[in-house]
Amino acid sequence: MMTLSPLLLALDFGGTKLTAAVAHPGRRTWLAHRRVFLPSGVDGRYEYDTMLDLGRDLIEEVDQPAAAVGVSFGGPVYAPAGLVRRSFHAPGWENTPLAEWLQAELNAPVVIDNDANAAALGEFRFGAGQGCQHVLYVTISTGIGGGWILNGRPYAGADGLAGEIGHLVVQPGGFLCPCGKRGCLEAEASGPAMVQRARLYLAKKKGKARSGHSSRARRLLELAEGDPDKITAQMISEAAAGGDKLSQKVIREAAERLGLGLSGAITLMNPDQVILGGGVTKSGELWWQIVRETTRAQTHSEISVEIVPAALGDDAPLWGAAALAEDVIR
Ligand SMILES: [Zn+2]
């Protein structure tokens, strides 16, 4: 009788969607893949039940039980205990023994981690970080998170919070962060931070002169139909690429602060590679140029480090979940 290669089940609880996929160890393609977009206002129980259905459907489809399950979760977790502390996106997840629940339902060992750590592992094993030993992964989107691979292994720290670069203070007294501090990298360089800064500059200019911002921010205001409340981070990128001076200033400042945060992490840990992912990394050439220049200028001169874009895109946490599962059966 032929022995089947064991089946890995990867689950990704994202902010707006749930994704599940199955793969065989060592393979770079999914055997099967399911994604469900979440309606607004759902709770943890709904997300859990929906994800369990996705997983079971996949197992049925490929007609093989899961040998191990890896989970990426969009919120703080205590990985050694398989515990979700809370979700950033839905109520009802507080202190949920997610690994234990899934293990009982799917009859296989389950390993969980937060999405940034999972994405770091995914990029290291399957994406831009292949062949490296010491990798910092940072995702810059509505928030800023990160994860470390050191000596070829995930590094979580004493509280599982290593890599939380989003809450490094880069601007004392700066914008208020969701964590309660001021001037955190997340509050200064995320997508919402760029939008906040653009609105602030528009309001200042408006105070000075009635038509003051018309020339410097014309393109941005056109995209936002004249309403600063409609500005998005994508509009700022698009306007900057089209020559909008105010948008370029906003991008430059956000990128400088990110570079400052990265240089601190790099100087301290000396990674061979820094991988940047998330929506804000699509802000264009100017953003990448300033991030690289600022990081280089602020980092110890004898340190050589590559700053590269993520290769797996939105699938990085899911591939990380597959890697978590793969490590269980190794
Ligand atoms: Zn913070």
What does this 3D model show about the protein?
- The structure is a single chain.
- The protein has helices at 44-62, 98-106, 115-126, 185-189, 191-208, 218-223, 233-241, 245-269, 285-298, 316-329; strands at 7-13, 17-23, 32-37, 66-73, 77-78, 83-84, 110-114, 135-140, 144-150, 153-155, 273-277, 306-309.
- With 330 residues, the chain is an alpha/beta fold.
- The protein has a five-stranded mixed beta sheet. Strands 10-9-8-11-12 form a five-stranded mixed beta sheet, sandwiched between helices.
- Zinc ion is lined by residues 167, 177, 179, 181, 184, 186.
- CATH class value of the largest domain: Alpha Beta
State the end-to-end distance: 22 Å
Which segments are poorly predicted (pLDDT under 50) over 5 or more consecutive residues? none
Beta-strand level of the residues, as a percent range?
Answer: 15-25%
Count of runs of 4 or more consecutive helical residues: 10
Q: What are the bound molecules?
A: zinc ion
Q: Can you summarize this structure?
A:
This protein is of the alpha/beta class and 330 residues long.
Outline the fold blueprint:
Layout: E1 7-13, E2 17-23, E3 32-37, H1 44-62, E4 66-73, E5 77-78, E6 83-84, H2 98-106, E7 110-114, H3 115-126, E8 135-140, E9 144-150, E10 153-155, H4 185-189, H5 191-208, H6 218-223, H7 233-241, H8 245-269, E11 273-277, H9 285-298, E12 306-309, H10 316-329
Parallel strand pairs: 1-4, 4-7, 8-11, 11-12
Antiparallel strand pairs: 1-2, 2-3, 5-6, 8-9, 9-10
The structure holds zinc ion (ZN).
The site of zinc ion has 6 residues, from loops.
